[in-house]
Amino acid sequence: MARIGFERLAHAYPGGGGYALKPMDMVWEDAGAYALLGPSGCGKTTLLNIVSGLLRPSEGRVLFGAADVTALPTERRNVAQVFQFPVVYDTMTVRENLAFPLRNRGVPAAAARGRVEYVARLLGLTRDLDRPARNLGADEKQKISLGRGLVRNDVAAILFDEPLTVIDPNLKWELRSRLKELHREVPVTMIYVTHDQTEALTFADRVAVMSEGEVVQMGTPEALFERPAHTFVGHFIGSPGMNLLPCAVEGRQALLPGGLHVTLPHAYPALSGQVELGIRPEFATLADEGLPVTIRRLEDLGRRRIARLELAGRPFAATLPEGMPVPAEPRLLLQPAQLHVYAGGRLMPGE
Ligand code: ATP
């Protein structure tokens, strides 16, 4: 087990035209559950491969505890990895597959047996333990891969690279919570790479949100929701994401296009210039008074409805609580304390 640290870490692929991973410093605490979340091409796999040792960074250092592992190959880093597609020996039974990483490390048979059965139970593979892996379906094979990653409890870290992509959606939900459960029982540093916010937010205690080769925010799921440090995080996380309105601000008054005014929360100092106002749809609702808006359409999400609006000529999403009728002359009401102010994409100090 280890704390993983990055010092001025960066990577540019040869001939790649710039940084795939921009210079950064970051720490993943020992035994934490972390997710790397971001859209395709943002650098998640590059960072994960640097941690596993598959890729040598072009700049900076990687530390496991106090040890500099930057130049160490994968086999000397003591990390377990689970990939998007199953890595399973078809000729072996499920039990032999699960025991393989333990046998390789010389773990005594009795200890290995208990551990294999524990992991099998957790993943719902107990009945299949003595079946040849080749007779199992794709979902079960990926469970074996997960099991092989989880079976050792002496690793520095377990790295998951989109491990549930090939899993049936219903089973995905269950496996996600099993992984979380396992992390509570076996506190090993786990890093989970995904482009799916639900997977990241349910698995991880801390999520690193990446955009264009940069970790734009690392925080708890609550922090990413309540205080997005960057407009990208606000927009990427949530469904729908945060509303963003460009506006001019003077003192405490924000002037939206169309001559509308919004008063900023008191937490901010008096400002002047061009900013973006951010507010999540959860803190914006339709009412009888407020800013004039046009309703474009309503989306029924069961417990709540999302009203897709037009505010000062721009799209805007608000929430209509269950049972609330649509006002005849809809107005938009914002919870002022939930307004965030961004300049150049970054959250302005003051909150
Ligand atoms: P995905 O979810 O699609 O795997 P990702 O977030 O994991 O995306 P990376 O695969 O790390 O992103 O890629 C980051 C950037 O580096 C991208 O612009 C990609 O095109 C580039 N890149 C990745 N591998 C190489 C390579 N071997 N040579 C050159 N450029 C690369």
Automatic annotation (TrEMBL):
PROSITE patterns registered for this protein in UniProt: ABC_TRANSPORTER_2 (PS50893)
Keyword Magnesium: no
Organism annotation: Pseudoroseomonas ludipueritiae
Keyword Cell membrane: yes
Signal peptide: none
Record GO terms (molecular function): ATP binding
Lineage, broadest ranks: Bacteria, Pseudomonadati, Pseudomonadota, Alphaproteobacteria, Acetobacterales
CDD domains: ABC_Carb_Solutes_like
The entry's keywords: ATP-binding, Cell membrane, Membrane, Nucleotide-binding, Transport
Stated name of the protein: ABC transporter ATP-binding protein
Residue span(s) of domain ABC transporter: 4-237
Gene3D superfamilies assigned to the protein according to its UniProt record, in alphabetical order: 2.40.50.100, P-loop containing nucleotide triphosphate hydrolases
